[in-house]
Amino acid sequence: MAESVVVIDYGAGNLCSVDNALRVAVGNGGGAAVVVSSDPDVIARADRIVLPGVGAFGQCIGALRSASGIEAAMTHAVKARGVPFLGICVGMQLLATEGVEHGTHRGLDWIGGTVARIVPDDASLKIPHMGWNEVALASDHPALRSLPADAAAYFVHSYAFAVADPADALATTDHGGSIAAIVGRDNMIGVQFHPEKSQAYGLAFLRGFLEWRP
């Protein structure tokens, strides 16, 4: 039976593009079935979970927590069952202890750290950080082994995840200072860039996630 890859629909994600990119990454081999769902039962039984996110931290964590049963189902799958989890953009940021965008908001606290506004050391650099930027790998994490060491991905964000444990930063990018581009711990991984907009690099990353056996 094909693995179920569930993209969580909680009203705050770029669902169509993420769904399409995952289907391309799966290819014609039928190794996984991609499903977009807000059904807690479907999420709780998933073999892999993808949490997208577009917007502000507080808006997204609020939407997640107000969607009946989704946070509990996701927690059961990821923390109790140990299924591989991928957070994208704000979906990655929600892994943090807290976010301080438009007030302080409690995150999932699955990977310790704070999501705070980017303050570049070069005043000429614009915020939001938008466009293609090099991703420098800092880990030999098995989900990343097919990625080139120095290649670019597409970013759109004004806030960044400052991890409490430097070992949880699997890759960085630079925008007037080092920014976590990929974070991870145990069966969880998150990317600040948008793999669904990052062309060949993004598809290579998604294939690595789909093949990863934590």
Model description:
It is a single chain. By secondary structure, the chain is of the alpha/beta class. It has one domain (3-211): Class I glutamine amidotransferase (GATase) domain (Rossmann fold), CATH 3.40.50.880. The protein contains 6 helices and 13 strands. It has helices at 15-26, 40-45, 57-66, 70-80, 90-93, 199-211, and strands at residues 3-8, 32-37, 48-51, 85-88, 98-99, 105-106, 113-117, 129-137, 150-157, 159-163, 169-174, 178-185, 188-191. The strands form 2 sheets. The chain has a 9-stranded mixed β-sheet with strand order 2-1-3-4-13-12-11-8-9, with helices on both faces. A hairpin with a 5-residue loop joins strand 5 (98-99) and strand 6. Helix 1 crosses helix 6.
Question: What value does the average pLDDT take?
Answer: 95
Q: End-to-end distance, in Å? A: 19 Å
Structural class: alpha/beta
Sheet with the most strands: spatial strand order: 2-1-3-4-13-12-11-8-9
CATH fold-level label: Rossmann fold
Radius of gyration: 16 Å
Rough outline: globular
* DSSP helix fraction: 25-40%
**Could you name the ranges where pLDDT drops below 50 across 5 or more consecutive residues?**
none
**Care to count the β-strands?**
13
Topology pattern, helix = H, strand = E? EHEHEHHEHEEEEEEEEEH
For the record, the CATH class is Alpha Beta
